[in-house]
Amino acid sequence: MRAMPRTATRRPRRRSFAAGSALAAAAVLLLAALAAGMEARSFEPGTSLPDPAISDLAVSDRQTPYPPAGEERFPGRPRVLYVYVAVRGLPAEEGLSARVERSGRASLLGALLGERGVVARSSGPPRLATGGEGLSGVVRFEVRSQDGSPLPAGGYTVAVYREGREEPSAVRRFVVGS
């Protein structure tokens, strides 16, 4: 028996660390799923050619001397895609470069293992002729994954830049995978 009765209130009940972590993880997954769904809906394939020196920009899974009809969707996962840039009146002292970005879901395992992404590189010598207005012909780039595996599914944006410029001269958006 105690001489003094216990009048103190109960200690507050602690929430378990596991329950709080599970709740936070569920919230993060829900936000990621919503963001991926909105991104997938906002991506529209197409081409933008703001520079008059670039007359066409096509993407194909076939390597040919002249650009085939451009495709916007590639249902499989090819190892390489070819980007054909048709130029007309490009100044001879200016070169072209390409950059590629991929949007879409990245696998959790790929993120943990450091999935390396995709790159755009020059593919063979440009087929250009000199004329009175400048260079005309076709420049080809290839889009591949850095580790040589098939391209990951997602929306791709290839931007072509003229040397010394910060704004893209041409942009092409296309989809790989379903």
Q: Which helices and strands, and how do they pair?
A:
Elements: H1 17-42, E1 46-48, E2 54-60, E3 73-74, E4 80-90, E5 96-103, H2 108-113, E6 118-122, E7 127-131, E8 134-145, E9 154-162, E10 170-176
Parallel strand pairs: 3-10
Antiparallel strand pairs: 1-10, 2-4, 4-8, 5-9, 6-8, 7-8, 9-10
Textual characterization of the structure:
It contains 2 helices and 10 strands. The chain has about 180 residues and is of the alpha+beta class. A hairpin with a 2-residue loop joins strand 7 (about 125-130) and strand 8. The N and C termini lie far apart (about 75 Å).
| Order of secondary-structure elements | HEEEEEHEEEEE
| Measured distance between first and last alpha carbons | 75 Å
What is the helix content? 10-25%
Overall average pLDDT: 80
Uncertain segments: none
Rg for CA atoms: 26 Å
So how many helices?
A: 2
Shape: elongated
Structural class comes to: alpha+beta
Q: Into which percentage range does the β-strand content fall?
A: 35-45%
Largest sheet: 5 strands, mixed
Strand element count? 10
Concise summary:
The chain is built from two helices and ten strands; from the N terminus they run αβββββαβββββ.
Keywords:
alpha+beta, 178 residues, 5-stranded mixed β-sheet, elongated
